[in-house]
Amino acid sequence: MNWDSVEASLHTLAHTSGGFTMAHRGVVTLPNGQSVFVKIGNDTLTKEWAHKEILVYRFLQKHAFAAIPKLLAVKSDQTAFALEPLQAGWDWSDTWTTDRLNKTLSAMDDLAVVIPEGPDRKVFEKSFISETADGWRPLFEHPELQQVLLTRLSAAGRQDIARDLNFELHARRSSSFVFTRNALVHNDVRADNCAWNEQLQAVKLIDWNWAQLGDRRIDIGSFLVHVYKTGFDITNYRDRLDAEALHWLAGFWFNAAIRPLPEGSSEQAALRDHQLMSGIAAFDLLHEL
Are 190 and 223 in contact (CB under 8 A)? Predict the structure, then answer.
């Protein structure tokens, strides 16, 4: 399939919801009746992310990584692409089961053992989540940010967290967390990015713009926090959690949640709410360990 045939049918684009990307995306119907999922960068940032995803899909397909949809077509400037659609039989909801959770963790484990070498390694060397993304230290250093966070926590009904936060102690603790960069990680595995097919007992991961050589404790922790937020009991998976990674993630999300919004849509406002609730969930889960 070539991109020209997809582009000629973009007028049939049925937009999809969910997630936080500002890229154009949805399902396109080709003249032969075939459906494809397309993602199109529409500004500098989303075009860069589309290019990154194309490189990741090509790399993972070359290494026979099963937990991705097939890359079908790529625009010549690599700012847009088409994937096999995951529609009938594929569940994108926040409904988790033991089978779905196990298959998703297995896919993340399989990803971690894929080793990029040579030019491929450059695709994954940029760190999207690393020591520089620590949230506790900037919160400690800027009292005005502390107050914004405390106000947001109180508005969310979590005065208990707001009352007991000691930013100096949290900053000191997070500064001792040492990142590793020895495994491929997705960095954003959640229901919106993880389709489940119960009949096939298979998962497919999408949205690879944050993929990097990174720290599996952060990747697994972020995913299990997402599942925990849905109310699914993750007691049997606590051996996959690292307390220091959870602590670091709580600060990362708290700090992100109070940053000014760029000009954009309501999705961006929803992203800030998602980050706040993720920080709360990580904090709660940390105290349950």
Answer: yes
